[in-house]
Design the sequence.
């Protein structure tokens, strides 16, 4: 999958043996190629995967600047779920650089490799947790909120800063995407008990060891929409900036949810390419 190798890189590609020594994001892209099978297997078996060095250093700098500009322009602090996250609304549709990130061929190639099916972009948002934002993101899955019926939907959480545990990186419950019981529960359940609804419906999840994945700027995690996950507070002096890119099955259809702002689509309608473009490889 040579498309994964980035022509924009400023320094020559490091040889695989150098990869562990080099800390510059992107300088480990060499590893990415060899690693893509590991990422796909981990995602399918565990419901999440760590992707080191998805973006190069220059890309991180450019997309981080665009992300902060988008947050300044239009964003809102989450009040509904007490996560302390400040998020944009449809940033990838309003900011050319963020659209470029959402449609990045290297990311698209990896996403379809992992998914094993054609995909489209469903969303691209900037997420910020300011320094000393004490609120954690409670345990949840994304399927509960998904306005979609699809074979597969997943998030790519791209770190645009170094995100050690203290800055609020994500924690995942391995194999929780494959848990039994109902496929999903009503959104009302989540509104009623934001942090407890998953354990109430799947009590076995409280015994699942949790995996916390700190990220270097330019790294990412992928997680299946049914994977239970959470994120810590940001107890550091530095802002946590990330880009949340959601991919869905190219054949997904619209599923309106009570209590959720409707889109101008009919229930069961296929997603229009014009607004939800297919992945570019
Ligand atoms: O960024 C966070 O704190 C939570 C993100 C999240 O829940 C997700 O990416 O699905």
Sequence:
């Amino acid at each position: 999958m040579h498309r994964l190798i980035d022509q924009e890189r400023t320094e020559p590609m490091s040889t695989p043996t150098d990869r562990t020594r080099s800390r510059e994001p992107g300088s480990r892209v060499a590893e990415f190629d060899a690693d893509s099978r590991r990422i796909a297997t981990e995602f399918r078996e565990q419901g999440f995967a760590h992707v080191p060095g998805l973006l190069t250093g220059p890309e991180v700098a450019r997309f981080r600047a665009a992300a902060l500009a988008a947050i300044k322009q239009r964003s809102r602090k989450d009040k509904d779920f007490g996560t302390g996250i400040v998020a944009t609304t449809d940033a990838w549709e309003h900011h050319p650089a963020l659209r470029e990130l959402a449609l990045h061929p290297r990311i698209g190639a990896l996403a379809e490799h992992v998914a094993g099916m054609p995909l489209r972009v469903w969303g691209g948002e900037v997420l910020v947790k300011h320094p000393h934002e004490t609120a954690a993101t409670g345990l949840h899955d994304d399927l509960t909120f998904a306005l979609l019926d699809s074979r597969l939907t997943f998030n790519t959480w791209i770190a645009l800063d170094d995100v050690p545990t203290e800055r609020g990186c994500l924690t995942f419950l391995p194999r929780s995407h494959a848990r039994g019981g109902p496929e999903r529960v009503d959104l009302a359940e989540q509104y009623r008990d934001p942090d407890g609804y998953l354990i109430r419906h799947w009590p076995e999840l409280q015994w699942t060891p949790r995996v916390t994945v700190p990220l270097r700027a330019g790294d990412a995690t992928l997680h299946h929409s049914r994977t239970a996950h959470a994120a810590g507070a940001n107890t550091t002096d530095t802002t946590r900036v990330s880009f949340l890119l959601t991919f869905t099955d190219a054949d997904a259809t619209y599923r309106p949810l009570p209590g959720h702002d409707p889109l101008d689509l009919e229930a069961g309608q296929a997603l229009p390419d014009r607004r939800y473009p297919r992945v570019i490889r």
In short: The two ends are 10 Å apart (CA to CA). The pocket of 2-oxoglutaric acid is lined by residues 83, 85, 127, 137, 142, 155, 157, 168, 229, 231, 244 (CB under 6 Å).
